[in-house]
Specification:
Keywords: Membrane, Transmembrane, Transmembrane helix. The chain is 46% helix and 18% strand. With 307 residues, it is an alpha+beta fold. The protein starts with a helix and ends in a 12-residue tail after the last helix. The site of zinc ion has 9 residues, from loops.
């Protein structure tokens, strides 16, 4: 199932790139920022592998090396698929204009100048890599010869940067997806379903942690719930550079629960980014989890209370 999702997003990624070439003559996969960051291929590689990773995670599995390897394969299929697709939609119109709108004759009806070899995908592509312009002549000699600036020449360097973009895009995409969630440490069979509690800044952090840790240690359901409720009711203005986001996470498979604390740091643009190494996931007793979920009105069906 995950592989089918993967093939769908791979097809979508190829389709978007070809649509852009056809409509705007713009190659998304060649787009770079500051000449070196392959933003376009990063995004298309990420999109290609997204469906597969999503499918694997939907089944409750943690992403492992073989999953990332398959994600990379999908990204490389996308890269080759786009090049092949571009060849397939390269036509020469009656007035000798090379276009990607299926107008006129397909480029395979032409041959490289001074040869009678058809312009196959291989010939077309290797020529495009070597030259900035391609001279072709009609194999049936109807249109005569013409030269067109490919304008899309990819030197080997660009090709390598682009390939790296596709590969890294698929890898980053997978780690971003899995980093945003928490895999159940108890059964290892699902991702935790998370319920928002509150957000606090550094001023309140130490005092609430002392209280919560003590309640967890004593397995004091009431004290834990009271402290959470108390904090939820405080409508404090957060102004610090660091914010702590508190959530309760419960496993849909084994019903075990955890307190999840994300450490978010402000960036230059004013938005917050999580410091992954600082995330705290603390096991809670079933009693505490059930009580908290009940008080926030999200009691999971099938969860049981043990006092
Ligand atoms: Zn579990």
């Amino acid at each position: 199932m995950a592989k089918i999702f993967g093939l769908l997003t791979t097809a979508a990624s190829i389709f978007i790139a070809l649509l852009s070439i056809s409509l705007f003559n713009f190659k998304v996969h060649s787009l770079t920022i500051l000449f070196i960051i392959p933003a376009g291929s990063l995004a298309l590689g990420g999109l290609a592998a997204f469906g597969y990773y999503h499918g694997v995670m939907k089944m409750g599995k943690k992403l492992v090396k073989t999953n990332y390897l398959f994600g990379v394969i999908l990204a490389l299929i996308t890269m080759v698929g786009i090049e092949y697709g571009e060849y397939m939609i390269t036509y020469v119109s009656a007035d000798n204009v090379v276009n990607h709108r299926l107008q006129g004759e397909h480029i395979s009806n032409y041959s490289l100048n001074d040869s009678n070899e058809p312009l196959t995908f291989y010939n077309y592509y290797s020529n495009k890599l070597d030259n900035s312009s391609v001279s072709i002549s009609s194999r049936s000699n109807v249109n005569g010869g013409l030269t067109f600036e490919s304008g899309r020449t990819m030197s080997t360097f660009n090709l390598v940067v682009q390939g790296l973009g596709f590969i890294l895009g698929s890898l980053f995409g997978g780690s971003m997806l899995s980093d945003s969630k928490n895999h159940c440490q108890s059964c290892q069979r699902a991702y935790l379903k998370e319920h928002e509690l509150f957000e606090i800044d550094e001023v309140d952090y130490d005092s609430i942690m002392v209280d919560l840790n003590q309640s967890i240690h004593d397995d004091n359901v009431y004290r834990f719930s009271d402290r959470i409720q108390q904090q939820k009711q405080i409508d404090n203005e957060l102004c610090e550079n660091i914010r702590y986001n508190f959530k309760i996470g419960q496993c849909p498979k084994c019903q075990e629960g955890y307190l999840i604390i994300r450490h978010n740091k402000i960036k230059d643009d004013g938005t917050y980014e999580e410091v992954l190494e600082q995330r705290k996931v603390t096991y809670l007793s079933r009693g505490i989890v059930a009580d908290i979920l009940k008080t926030i009105g999200n009691t999971e069906k099938g969860s049981s209370v043990h006092f």
